[in-house]
């Protein structure tokens, strides 16, 4: 209102006059702090002139959270270079959303996995605190905006964000984007490797569409343990990024010989054998498996397969293939093997 605008102008003008009279240097832009504008948090509005401050806010409230409490009304703070960059970035996002007609209640190209929650028209989705922080603080999703959600069985839906708080967020399912369709039934069996390579294998295997990820320990496996929860979160993030509608099953680390004791007879085992390096005929071998519907790719450890392991694969009617003319690292071999199934000729 006009009275509020006059009060704000007088308060800021008096503050500026006092600073100038004391020969204090003003750093950056003048900042006006207004309390209680969004979910009872203070908003910081960068302004270059007192006269157009309220008009700017009425047209395009470009703000950035700097305090969680209520700062004094009309207080002036120096704006750091980092804060100026944040304000400029926020202004760009708002401008782009306005150009697309998505300002405020638009649809954002953000996908969130909400496993264990049923997705139907009108159903409520409860987001975890980490997901709420990502949507609210990182991606700056506003209440009323729509994001994409999927649960691994009901397809992908639009979800309207209704509420944010420190404990989590809540939304309402509004419209289905894609019905659920399962991809190729391929498992990846691999021996964990040192460093970040194990995480890279899980990430790339998820992007390449595997349905199950099974870490196994072999006679020459160096890494004896894995961080299961960390690998599970990587699989979820990769599924959100690559537009797949489910998250692959990640089982705990187990010995290979124990896993093969109860191997399902209807799943064809394909072993990547480094002793077949340089051999031709990999495509012909895979083409011969055209009638099979379920596969498992088995990639060995950094030290390679032992003679006993190679001879034991014959008991399970395993098919051995080579991966080209060179010896590959274990993580590279896993990606190369799965790529073969992505582009297989059937």
Task: Write up this protein.
This protein has 346 residues and is an alpha/beta fold. Helices cover 33% and strands 25% of the residues. The chain has helices at 2-21, 53-59, 81-99, 129-138, 197-207, 228-242, 256-261, 282-287, 307-312, 330-342, and strands at 30-38, 41-47, 63-64, 107-113, 124-127, 146-150, 156-165, 168-178, 185-190, 212-217, 249-250, 254-255, 268-272, 294-299, 319-321. Strands 9, 10, 11, 12, 13, 14 and 15 form a seven-stranded parallel sheet that branches. Helix 8 (282-287) links the parallel strand 13 and strand 14 (294-299). Helix 5 runs parallel beside helix 6 (228-242) and helix 5 (197-207) packs parallel to helix 10 (330-342).
Question: What is the strand and helix layout of this fold?
Answer:
Layout (H helix, E strand, L loop, with lengths): L1 H20 L8 E9 L2 E7 L5 H7 L3 E2 L16 H19 L7 E7 L10 E4 L1 H10 L7 E5 L5 E10 L2 E11 L6 E6 L6 H11 L4 E6 L10 H15 L6 E2 L3 E2 H6 L6 E5 L9 H6 L6 E6 L7 H6 L6 E3 L8 H13 L4
Helix pairs in contact: 5-6, 5-10
């Amino acid at each position: 209102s006009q009275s509020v605008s006059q009060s704000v102008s007088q308060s800021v003008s008096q503050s500026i006059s006092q600073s100038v009279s004391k020969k204090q240097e003003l750093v950056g832009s003048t900042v006006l702090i207004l309390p209680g504008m969004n979910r009872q948090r203070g908003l910081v509005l960068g302004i270059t002139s007192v006269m157009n401050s309220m008009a700017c806010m009425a047209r395009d409230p470009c703000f950035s959270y700097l305090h969680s409490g209520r700062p004094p009304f009309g207080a002036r703070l120096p704006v750091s270079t980092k804060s100026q960059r944040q304000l400029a970035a926020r202004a760009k996002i708002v401008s782009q959303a306005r150009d697309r007609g998505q300002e405020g209640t638009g649809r954002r190209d953000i996908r969130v996995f909400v496993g264990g929650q049923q997705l139907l028209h009108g159903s409520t989705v409860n987001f975890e605190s980490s997901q709420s922080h990502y949507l609210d603080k990182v991606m700056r999703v506003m209440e009323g905006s729509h994001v994409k959600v999927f649960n691994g069985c009901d397809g992908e839906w639009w979800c309207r964000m209704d509420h944010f708080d420190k404990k989590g967020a809540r939304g309402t399912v509004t419209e289905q984007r894609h019905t659920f369709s399962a991809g190729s039934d391929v498992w990846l069996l691999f021996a964990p490797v040192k460093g970040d390579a194990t995480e890279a294998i899980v990430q790339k295997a998820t992007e390449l569409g595997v349905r199950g990820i099974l870490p196994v320990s072999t006679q020459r496996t160096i890494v004896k343990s894995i961080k299961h929860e960390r690998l599970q979160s990587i699989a979820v993030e990769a599924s959100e990024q690559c537009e797949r509608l489910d998250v692959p099953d990640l089982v705990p680390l187990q010995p290979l010989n124990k896993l093969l004791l109860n191997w399902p007879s209807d799943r064809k085992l394909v072993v990547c054998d480094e002793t077949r390096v340089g051999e031709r005929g990999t495509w012909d071998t895979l083409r011969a498996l055209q009638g099979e519907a379920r596969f498992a790719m088995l990639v060995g450890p950094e030290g390679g397969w032992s003679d006993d392991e190679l001879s034991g694969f014959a008991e399970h009617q395993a098919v051995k293939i080579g991966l080209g003319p060179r010896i590959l690292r274990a993580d590279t071999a896993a990606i190369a093997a799965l790529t073969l199934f992505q582009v297989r000729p059937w």
